[in-house]
Design goal:
Elements: E1 3-8, E2 11-17, E3 23-26, E4 33-34, E5 45-50, E6 53-58, E7 65-67, E8 70-71, E9 75-78, E10 83-86, E11 89-94, H1 104-108, E12 117-119, E13 137-142, E14 150-153, E15 157-161, E16 168-170, E17 180-185, E18 188-193, E19 199-201, E20 204-205, E21 210-211, E22 216-220, E23 223-229
Parallel strand pairs: 3-4, 15-16
Antiparallel strand pairs: 1-2, 1-11, 3-5, 5-6, 6-9, 7-8, 7-10, 10-11, 12-16, 13-14, 13-23, 15-17, 17-18, 18-21, 19-20, 19-22, 22-23
């Protein structure tokens, strides 16, 4: 099977199952992958399957189609995990959508909390960390996610805090405007505390920059996130 995960401002908006069939992407409502944004052409791009391989084609769109950050012309081979950008939307082509899941022990820590999470459009794990292709990492959200439960990490810098410009907004009367940053250095993402306290990684308080690895659980005040490499 095959699916297209639709992201806006890195936040998951929808998942479309396309199976083994060709599909079109665009602003017109008759497209299988519909994106209602003025920066997207009526029929912007198309995904097709031929001889057991997937292909992406730009359909002479006004603003162009980008594959893993590179503008394409004509047809290009498409692989699971690739990210297609049309307008302000990122479309991730996957064989299985990510199912949000968190460590039950850490989830239990939240049972007594009034959770608030808004997503805007020093010790670490001992596991070995293999390099992951940019765009294949994400944060799975747990709590009052306000219509979003997954944040695709495909940029170099993200912020966590109460400030209105933060990518992940954490509520609470005394919550700092900026609590932590997630920064991409090379092929890895790093969690960087900005203020003392408030941050735990896999149950331990974090006071310095630490590299994230697959299945890490990040607790920021009362918000629980799981870092995954897909």
């Amino acid at each position: 099977m095959s699916f297209v995960e639709i992201y806006f401002n890195s936040s998951l908006q929808n998942v479309v199952e396309i199976g083994d069939q060709a599909c079109s992407i665009g602003r017109a409502t008759y497209n299988q992958v519909y994106i209602g944004n003025k920066g997207v052409s009526l029929v912007h791009a198309a995904i097709s399957r031929q001889d057991g391989e997937w292909w992406l084609e730009d359909m002479n769109s006004t603003n162009g189609t980008y594959l893993n950050g590179t503008k394409i012309a004509g047809r290009h081979k498409l692989r699971f995990g690739d990210v297609v950008t049309v307008g302000k939307h990122d479309l991730k082509f996957v064989d299985q959508p990510t199912a949000p899941g968190l460590n039950p022990a850490l989830s239990a820590q939240l049972d007594d909390f009034d959770r608030t999470l808004l997503v805007n459009p020093a010790t670490g794990s001992s596991q070995p960390a293999a390099a992951a292709r940019p765009g294949n990492q994400a944060l799975l959200m747990h709590g009052e996610a306000r219509n979003i439960n997954k944040l695709l990490l495909n940029k170099d810098y993200y912020t966590i805090g109460k400030g209105p410009q933060c990518n992940v907004r954490v509520g609470g009367w005394f919550t700092p405007k900026l609590i932590a940053e997630i920064i991409r250095l090379g092929d890895h993402y790093y969690l960087t505390p900005v203020v003392d306290k408030h941050i735990r990684l896999n149950g331990r308080e974090v006071g310095q920059q630490v590299r994230l690895v697959h299945d890490d659980n990040i607790l920021v005040k009362k918000v629980l996130m799981k870092y995954v490499e897909q």
